[in-house]
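S.,

As promised, the glyoxylic acid run. Input:
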Amino acid sequence: MPASILMTRTLPDEALALARARATVDLHSGPQPLPKSELAARLGDKDGMVCLITDTIDAQTLAGAPRLRVIANVAVGYNNIDVAAATARGIVVTNTPDVLTETTADFAWALLMATARRVVEGDRYVRAGKFTRWEWDLLWGADVHGKTLGILGFGRIGRAMARRARGFAVRVLYHDALRADLAAERDLAATFVDKATLLKESDFVTLHTPLLPETHHLIGADELKMMKRTAYLINAARGPIVNEAQLVQALKDGWIAGAGLDVYEEEPKIHPGLFSLPSVVLAPHIASASYETRGKMATLAVENCLAVLEGKMPPTPVNPEVLRKSH
Ligand code: GLV
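Predicted complex:
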């Protein structure tokens, strides 16, 4: 009998066809996420699952899925899944790193540029019919070239941010729990500094850590006060890395100059204070949302799921120890 998979959203044709060729697919076509009780009910007899970050897979849900062997998240981040509970049950969790690295870095740079150069404010101005003549002092912003970029979290996406900095003659500082090797630092022209130095010296601070207990509220009032009054904060990682209420205060009181945000602390809820601040660019969590990359993420997630169901090591496991133990 082919393995059975719960897929919580219709994925692009290639990924869906791949899954259907090698498994029986119970497809929830969306767009609303499955309510928790329905997700649990449909997972009860499944061997595998392909899910999105809007699906919360907690210990209780896993307890009701005795046959489940793999949870393939279509995202690089996997804070929606209780990985410890999955590991304890011998369930493999997989994510989709690499395929979205460059696309996400493109977007974080887009947010940075849009925020510094007031692109969205300009768009609103034109649409409002206010562009009646060229104005000398209209929408002045901050230069990007020649400035200092501080990258907090120097994994794949953080490094892709650094690579792009060279084209703008931007100096790169970074901080991470793990220092990169010297060859990587040299290649990327990136200087390792402590977090306080990064906050004090950077004109743009961009966040690229996963959401972990140690990175929850990594940026709060103390950190925002350390930043330059002319600096900008960019977050295309996870909302709870920033204390959103304290960010609103920082922006209102001028501790920093602006922010470009793709993610929010209680997504999709957004702190009401952010809406009235013109110095903020708000995006709806779309950093990896290019045609090409979303297709690759979906296919990789299905490949991960099928590999586990077929007794192989998946391309990108989060908890490979589950398989190493059983092999
Ligand atoms: C998106 O947020 C992802 O983690 O891939």
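Residues 53, 75-77, 100, 288 surround glyoxylic acid (CB under 6 Å). Residues 58 and 102 are 30 Å apart (CA to CA).

- D.
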